[in-house]
Amino acid sequence: MRCPHCGAPHQEDGFRCEHCNKMIDPVQPKTTWRSIVIGGIVLIILGIIGFAFIYMDSNKVGVFEQDEPQSFNDYSWEQIAEISSNMTMAGNVDGALREAKKHDFVNEDGTLRSDLVKDFTLADGTKAQAHLVGVYHDPRTNNSGNAGMSFIVTVPVEEAPMCDAATNQGGWEASALRAQLNGEFFDSLPADLQEYIVEVKKETNNAGNTESPDAVSVTGDKVWALSAVEFAGESFGTVGYANVLNAEGEQYMLLKDDAVKQDLLSKLAGSSDLNWWFRSPNPETATQFFSQGKGYDTEQNAPESLDANSKLSVVIGFCI
């Protein structure tokens, strides 16, 4: 190039001219419309690629480094716990169901599938099955939202009295069965399941003989017996007593389908003639708790009431 000051040839920009000793300023490249268009196209392409990576990542679960399991029973408890945590973070039932849909846990109409069952073995070798019955249902005791998944064990795992004596005073909170389930029974669960069970709030009439829903109070439980309303739905019996029973929580999502509920009743009863305990005291008596067998009173939706020291099967629930 030539020096812009004296016109001497073969000068390099950014240096002094060899002839006139003046600085030759660097030549700035010219911006053209073509370069602007090409740059814009490159930015758009990079943006699309980045969005695609973000979208795909948001639809993956961290513990799934390869393809997801083919059936619910093939998931590890760690994988189930991570999905459940995402359901909790979703903040409501609809959000939890959207999370469930990512893993094919829902039907085409958006309702929870009825075949989500996982096998496990207790310390004594007893084979049991955990059946997913609800999402975002039970509030955690640490007030961090609702537990993502709620299960019931569809193979009765114990035979025990609710209380050592025929009394329902103190309700579920004071019962021997509650202490047993949250103690030695919890310890008998597989270690990889224990690790992910979360403590939740359970509402129960902990007074016993009463007509006041105000008698219902909250306990924190890792495992529990279901209340009558959680399994069978609302009671329509004597108004005062029904109000007490209906204050003990809400029916689980899956159990609102009568056909599914009847199928579960058959599985829960198995070959045994024994009923299994609800944690609900009979508020009309001072000695009895409600129990459930293969059927229930379709007119009043009221299971059978038995003395608290009767020895019955136990169906438990837990949350992850």
* Number of DSSP E strands: 12
Distance between the termini: 76 Å
Largest sheet: 5 strands, antiparallel
Please tell me how large the radius of gyration is: 32 Å
Q: Please bin the fraction of helical residues.
A: 25-40%
Please write the string of helix (H) and strand (E) elements.
Answer: HHHEEEEHHEEEHHHEEEEE
Number of helices in the DSSP assignment: 8
The helix/strand class is: alpha+beta
The strand line-up of the biggest sheet is 1-2-3-12-7
Q: Average pLDDT across residues?
A: 86
Shape: elongated
Unreliable parts:
none
- Taken as a percent bin, the fraction of beta residues is 15-25%
What are the defining features of this structure?
8 helices; 12 strands; 320 residues; alpha+beta; three-stranded antiparallel beta sheet; single chain
Describe the protein's architecture and organization.
The chain has helices spanning 33-58, 77-90, 93-101, 176-188, 191-194, 228-232, 239-246, 258-269, and strands at residues 117-121, 127-135, 149-153, 158-161, 200-205, 216-221, 223-225, 276-281, 288-292, 304-307, 311-314, 316-319. With 320 residues, it is of the alpha+beta class. The strands form 4 sheets. Strands 1-2-3-12-7 form a 5-stranded antiparallel beta sheet. A 3-stranded antiparallel beta sheet has the order 8-9-10, with no helix packed on it. The chain has a two-stranded antiparallel ribbon with strand order 4-11. Helix 2 (77-90) crosses helix 3. The chain is elongated, with a radius of gyration of 32 Å. The model has no long low-confidence stretch (mean pLDDT 86).
